[in-house]
From TrEMBL:
Residues spanning the membrane: none
Record Pfam families: Aminotran_5 (PF00266)
Protein name, UniProt field: Probable cysteine desulfurase
Species whose genome carries this gene: Arcobacter arenosus
Protein family according to the UniProt entry: Belongs to the class-V pyridoxal-phosphate-dependent aminotransferase family. Csd subfamily.
EC main group: transferase
Annotated keywords: Pyridoxal phosphate, Transferase
Cofactor(s) essential for the protein: pyridoxal 5'-phosphate
One biological process term in Gene Ontology: cysteine metabolic process
Alphabetical list of InterPro entries matching this protein: Aminotrans_V_dom, Aminotrans_V_PyrdxlP_BS, Cys_dSase_SufS, Cysteine_dSase, PyrdxlP-dep_Trfase, PyrdxlP-dep_Trfase_major, PyrdxlP-dep_Trfase_small
MF term (GO), any: cysteine desulfurase activity
Record-listed E.C. numbers: 2.8.1.7
Length: 393
């Protein structure tokens, strides 16, 4: 129903089921990129001629749109980055450095593991990992035990697992962490694609956002920083547009958000991200949820009918993604055959090697949906999977 808004679907025969990796872009987002480069390409927050002013206005409009979209209390709390990876690295190498212990979940993307390893934090030595149960659910009892033993920690947890679609109860995680005077960053890479986020209701301290997974351009994302932290730490990188005064003797920084956005930003990307958020609002999360839930249930039902399929979690605690294998068949081989049939899924470890290791597997076949996917896409996938299986058995 919404495919008509996405030029990709008019130009490609591919059944696109790799939305966990990146989403397609609506026409309005693509147009905003062309318009910026063709009609008012100029740098922001520097020059004062007409096009530069327009670029700055449009850039700042996106900040306002995102502020309202996630219900931040001020636009100073919104920092544009190049994505969730940068947002997490940013906090890991600045504010979170001072914490003795960082607590993550078992289901983290490498982007929320490696930055901590790079600081010399390893398991039991500055890094703790919350167990998951046999259905990959977050083990709250273990989390509380870790918090009790390590109060005043930094908790950095994904909202939705990209590898399995597991959705964490982040409200409960944040509440419990705060009870033990800990500070929480949520990796929201997969969040805005599927569900409404209200940072004030969540009472989250830091929230990392990906633009390209939320129908926006690549190379753009954001970091929400709760107001009370804005003055507490310095940026991890500085440069043009971050300073108030500089002399050889020293520099003074501008207030947030500018002190955190060093150098020329991805101006077109930020403007396009604003358009993507407008598009999501136009469709509405109520619509998105209904469509996704129906197609997701259909996907699960149809996959369950295939012989020798292995799932690692139930769909009750997950959203939009289904990860699986077939007994004695390589997921890589399935991926190669599906590609030949124009079905785009991801096979492999999905940048989540630790949980794959824990499950004793090398990877899975992951089908990840967005609201533009329909029953026909699922039918094409199932038909192709059946063909692939018959070739490999
Ligand atoms: C859960 C999760 N965290 C982090 C990332 C990295 O996000 P980005 O591409 O915006 O840097 C991804 C991307 O796949 C992800 O799924």
């Amino acid at each position: 129903m919404f495919k008509k808004d996405f030029p990709f679907f008019a130009n490609s025969q591919t059944v696109y089921l790799d939305n966990g990796a990146t989403t397609q872009k609506p026409k309005s987002v693509i147009n905003s990129q062309i318009e910026y480069y063709e009609k008012y390409c100029a740098n922001t927050h520097r020059s004062s001629f007409g096009d530069a002013n327009k670029a700055t206005t449009k850039y700042e409009e996106s900040r306002k749109i995102l502020k309202e979209f996630i219900n931040a209390s001020s636009k100073e709390e919104i920092i544009f980055t190049k994505g969730v990876t940068e947002s997490i690295n940013f906090i890991a190498s600045s504010y979170a450095k001072k914490f003795k212990t960082v607590i993550i979940s078992s289901l983290e993307h490498h982007s929320n593991i490696v930055p901590w390893h790079m600081q010399g934090r390893t398991l039991g030595a500055g890094l703790e990992v919350v167990n998951c149960d046999e259905n990959l659910g977050f083990d709250f009892a273990h989390f509380e035990e870790l918090l009790k033993n390590n109060p005043k920690s930094f908790v950095s947890v994904t909202h939705i697992s990209n590898a399995f679609g597991i959705i964490h109860d982040i409200r409960r995680i944040i509440e419990l962490a705060h009870k033990y005077e800990s500070v929480v960053l949520i990796d929201g890479a997969q969040s805005l694609t599927h569900t409404h986020i209200d940072v004030q209701v969540l009472d989250v301290d830091f929230f990392a956002i990906s633009g390209h997974k939320s129908f926006g351009p690549t190379g753009v994302g954001a970091l929400y920083i709760k107001e009370k932290y804005l003055e507490e730490f310095d940026p991890y990188q500085t440069g043009g547009a971050t300073i108030d005064k500089v002399d050889y003797a020293g520099s003074t920084l501008l207030p947030s958000p500018y002190k955190f956005e060093a150098g020329t930003q991805n101006i077109a990307g930020v403007i396009g991200f604003g358009e993507a958020l407008k598009f999501i609002s136009h469709v509405g999360y109520a619509n998105i949820k209904t469509i996704e839930k129906d197609v997701y249930q259909y996907l699960d039902l149809k996959l369950s009918e295939l012989p020798n399929i292995i799932f690692y979690n139930k769909i009750e605690n997950s959203i939009a993604s289904r990860s699986f294998n077939f007994k004695n068949i390589s997921h890589d081989d399935i991926g190669i055959l599906l590609d030949k049939m124009n079905i785009a899924v991801r096979v492999g470890h999905h940048c989540a090697q630790p949980i794959m290791n824990k499950l004793g597997i090398k990877g899975t076949i992951r089908v990840s949906l967005a609201f533009y996917n329909d029953y026909k896409d699922v039918d094409r996938l199932i038909e192709s999977l059946k063909k692939a299986l018959s070739m490999l058995e």
